Every structure is written in structure tokens, then in C-alpha cells.
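User: Can you fold this complex?
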Amino acid sequence: DVKVTQSSRYLVKRTGEKVFLECVQDMDHENMFWYRQDPGLGLRLIYFSYDVKMKEKGDIPEGYSVSREKKERFSLILESASTNQTSMYLCASSLFGRGHNSPLHFGNGTRLTVT
Amino acid sequence: GQQLNQSPQSMFIQEGEDVSMNCTSSSIFNTWLWYKQDPGEGPVLLIALYKAGELTSNGRLTAQFGITRKDSFLNISASIPSDVGIYFCAGHRGTSYDKVIFGPGTSLSVIP
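Assistant: Here's the predicted assembly.
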């Protein structure tokens, strides 16, 4: 079974702090994604990556950046956390090279609270 | 941008009842996906649909790809307590560079 592991289940950070959310997958998937989940809005794509050192903006990239130095690891960075970034963050991975049309495997999420 | 609508937003049902939910879009999709999110966990793929009119089952779950390609339906028969969770539909236009679009979810509660 594919395992996508997010390093923290819960995080509480202060406004202005730099925040790192880490995600590791163990199935050699090429594609990795970061979503945020908010009630009534579903899942919105922040950033994704098709390959090491490659990244592309999703629908809501403002205030975020990402890093993919190794194939199995995809990090989401909040350069200066703000209260409107309080949310559930979900990492996902998928197989089959470039593209979004293969099933997503999700981690269990990181619930971030910015105070 | 593209949006998906799901209805109902939430449902409270008695154990043993059947459940129906749907997902609609103003745009055509070539793939419809249904995910379930258990409380405290990430979403898990339940059913994928790739052809208009397709009806696919996974145990007690049955999903249909609407003929217009603008909607999809999910039915759960004889609900049990572990069906509790949020059900997301997702659509994809089918080319490698199109993103998967998620609906806002239907929250299901099952009363024992």
C-alpha cells in the first residue's frame, strides 16, 4: 500500500513565523501535491511537482512556496504565517509521470493553527 | 475557474438506509472520481469513472457518470456506522495537464 506521511498532525504557530510542512511518500511516485481543505470549499490545490526540483503553482499559491529536493519528499513553506492560513493541509502523491489523471494518495493531513 | 457543486451538503440518516448524493458542474469532465475522508484521515479513492453513462460498483457503493458529462452520482446501500465521513466528488478533463477539481464535499452521519 502507498504510504504518504505528513510529519505533524497538529501545529500551532504565531503570525509571522516561517512554517515548514513536510511530506514523504514511499512508493516512488513522480507527482506530489499540496492541498488545503477548508469547510465548504473542498480541496484547493496550492502547489504541485512532477519531478525533483520541479514545481508548479496550483490555484492558490499566494503566501506559500515549496521544495522538492528528493523524489520522495515534498515540503510546503509558509514564509510568514498569517491567520488566514489556518487550515487543514493535505499532501498527496500519484504515479504515471506527468499529469493529474492518476489516482491521488493522500496523507492524513496537518491541521495548522496560526494565532 | 471551474467549480463543482455537491448536494446535499450534509446528511443524517439511520443505519440501514440507502444514501444518494450528487455532483454537478457547468463544465464537461471526462473523468469523475469519488473520494471518502474518514474523520482525522486523508481522502481515499472509492470509485473512478471514465466514460459517460458508466455505472460502477464497489461493494455497497455505486457511482454513475452522467450522460451529459456534467454530473455524477454516488449511492450507498444499507448504510452502516463506518460510512460516516465526508464524500468528495472530483472531476478531471482528461488531458495530462488539467488539474483535478474537487467539490466541497457531502458530510454523512449515520445514526445507529
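The radius of gyration of chain A is 13 Å. Chain A touches chain B at residues 4, 35, 40-45, 58-59, 90, 92, 98-101, 103-104, 106-109 (CB under 8 Å).
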